[in-house]
């Protein structure tokens, strides 16, 4: 049976977890009834279980090892039972409530389920079928521990439940029947003679990079942790989920009219939404810009997105919430991101994940409580983008209507923002401490309002959707 050491960053995520701060990612997938009769809940549950059991990575659990000291390894769970991981939960909705009522109920339920840490000692993932009754929409909530996956890896793992990906996997011969286990090949610990010089040079470069990141962390750390009250309230251990839907064509028109990238526009929308939300709450706008941690994948373009282990860095971005002019907010965000990109994802205080990759296993095990508390000194809110396949997806013939990603909350923080694009919509998953941010739904609406306001600032010709017929005079 093969084993594989947890990479340093994965080990950090494993030890950062506490009951009040579970370190799992999530996604809430909403499915519309198929063109024919929708499969019943038992059939859907069996299908989810079969497809999840066929994903080798989902059979792996974390166990401690003697060497390296403080380390841990992935190994195949010999007692794996997919029924421990795939559950059905009923969504209570009012009779005749329709899809909106189901969506509201599924979102509330997903927030409550995201509160619960994953059980250690078993493969660290969970999947829930959220069913509102026959013939109506249904949802699937997926929870994956951050030690198991970063955003891109999570997509590669979770996509195995969809009809299209499962079919491709079967045709390629990569599927694993539920009764068989494909072990992960063990990692080689002893380099050959030709590798020694290259490893030594790479280690020197890594240590130099880590020293630079460490110095940036010290310079960027803040001693005044008061920040934005709603974003820095004490943790209650509760979770609330809200969603927002942005028109992708509108985002593209704003980008063409203001410059920068689509991601710059979305970060500007987050800044504007936070400003609107704070003003509506009657909160004073902060004198110091709240900081967003913006993760950056370190996976090579065209490389294996499903490669094991987290491969992350990040940028730090001041969100100009005090700036009243929406176009100026976009300009400030764009210029700040340009500076981040010029420096690169391996430099600066945001590259704290790069520093974590250089620390020994024992440091992660002993230093996790301190590292978790230090996150508040660096940033106020996580804003992350998760890529999805561009093709249409379905489950048991039922089309995927929306997918809302969810990010974990760092200790001392109350809000995380995750975005993805599916079809013609940018979908936003907002995760918050349930007591600190009881009005999370309002923040989602503020994001939608910010896009409308930015469109209104564009010249009239720029507001016309691509491919729309000319407006008669």
Architecture overview:
The protein is α+β, with helices and mostly antiparallel strands. It has two domains: 3-172, Chloramphenicol Acetyltransferase; 199-385 and 411-462, Chloramphenicol Acetyltransferase. Helix content is 37%, strand content 20%. It contains twelve helices and 15 strands. It has helices spanning 8-16, 41-53, 98-114, 151-158, 163-172, 193-220, 248-258, 262-281, 326-343, 352-356, 361-378, 440-457, and strands at residues 3-5, 24-31, 60-64, 72-76, 86-90, 125-131, 138-145, 240-247, 291-297, 312-318, 381-385, 394-395, 398-406, 415-422, 425-432. The strands form three sheets. Strands 5-6-7-2-13-12 form a six-stranded mixed β-sheet, with helices on both faces. The model is unreliable at 173-215, 301-307 and 469-473 (pLDDT under 50).
CATH topology descriptor of the largest domain: Chloramphenicol Acetyltransferase
The strand order across the widest sheet is 5-6-7-2-13-12
Helix content: 25-40%
* Count of helical regions: 12
Tell me the series of helices and strands, N- to C-terminal.
Answer: EHEHEEEHEEHHHEHHEEHHHEEEEEH
Domains counted in the coordinates: how many? Answer: 2
What share of the residues does DSSP label as strand, in percent?
Answer: 15-25%
Structural class: alpha+beta
CATH-defined superfamily of the largest domain: Nonribosomal peptide synthetase, condensation domain
- Ranges where pLDDT stays below 50 over 5 or more residues in a row are 173-215, 301-307, 469-473
Shape annotation:
globular
Oligomeric form: single chain
What value does the average pLDDT take?
80
Radius of gyration: 23 Å
Termini distance? 73 Å
Question: Major sheet, described briefly?
Answer: 6 strands, mixed
The overall strand count is 15
């Amino acid at each position: 049976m093969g084993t594989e050491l947890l990479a340093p960053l994965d080990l950090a995520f494993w030890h950062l977890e506490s009951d009040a701060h579970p370190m799992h990612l999530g996604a809430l997938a909403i499915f519309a009834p198929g063109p024919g009769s929708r499969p019943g809940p038992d059939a859907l549950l069996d299908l989810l279980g079969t497809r999840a059991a066929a994903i080798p990575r989902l059979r792996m659990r974390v166990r401690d090892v003697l060497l390296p000291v403080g380390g841990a390894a992935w190994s195949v769970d010999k007692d794996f039972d997919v029924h421990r991981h795939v559950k059905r939960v009923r969504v209570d909705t009012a009779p005749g409530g329709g899809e909106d009522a189901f969506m509201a109920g599924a979102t509330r339920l997903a927030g409550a389920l995201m509160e619960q840490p994953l059980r250690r000692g078993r493969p660290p993932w969970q999947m829930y079928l959220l069913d509102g009754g026959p013939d109506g929409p249904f949802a699937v909530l997926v929870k994956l521990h951050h030690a198991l996956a970063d955003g891109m890896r999570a997509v590669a793992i979770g996509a195995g439940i969809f009809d299209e990906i499962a079919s491709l996997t079967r045709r390629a011969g990569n599927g694993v029947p539920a009764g068989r286990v494909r072990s992960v090949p063990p990692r080689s610990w002893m380099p050959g003679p030709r590798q020694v010089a290259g490893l030594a040079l790479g280690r020197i470069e890594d240590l130099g990079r880590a020293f630079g990141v460490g110095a940036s962390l010290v310079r960027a750390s803040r001693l005044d942790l008061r920040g934005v009250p709603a974003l820095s309230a004490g943790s209650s251990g509760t979770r609330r989920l809200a969603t927002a839907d942005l028109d992708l064509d509108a985002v593209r028109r704003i980008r063409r009219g203001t410059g920068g990238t689509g991601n710059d526009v979305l970060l500007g929308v987050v800044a504007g939404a936070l400003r609107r939300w704070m003003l509506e709450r009657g909160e004073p706008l902060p004198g110091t810009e709240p900081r967003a941690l913006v993760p950056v994948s370190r996976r090579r373009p065209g490389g294996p997105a499903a490669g094991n282990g987290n491969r992350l860095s990040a940028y730090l971005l001041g969100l100009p919430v005090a700036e009243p002019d929406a176009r100026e907010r976009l300009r400030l965000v764009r210029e700040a991101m340009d500076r981040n990109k010029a420096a690169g994802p391996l430099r600066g205080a945001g590259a704290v994940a790069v520093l974590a990759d250089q620390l020994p296993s024992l440091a992660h095990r002993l230093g996790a409580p301190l590292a978790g508390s230090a996150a508040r000194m660096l940033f106020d809110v996580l804003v992350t983008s998760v890529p999805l396949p561009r093709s249409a997806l379905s489950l048991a013939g039922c089309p995927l209507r929306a997918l809302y990603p969810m990010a974990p909350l760092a200790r001392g923080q109350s809000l995380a923002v995750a975005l993805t694009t599916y079809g013609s919509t940018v979908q936003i998953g907002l995760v918050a401490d349930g007591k600190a941010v009881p009005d999370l739904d309002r923040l989602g609406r503020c994001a939608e309002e910010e896009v409308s306001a930015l469109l209104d600032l564009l010249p009239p010709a720029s507001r016309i959707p691509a491919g729309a017929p000319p407006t008669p005079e």
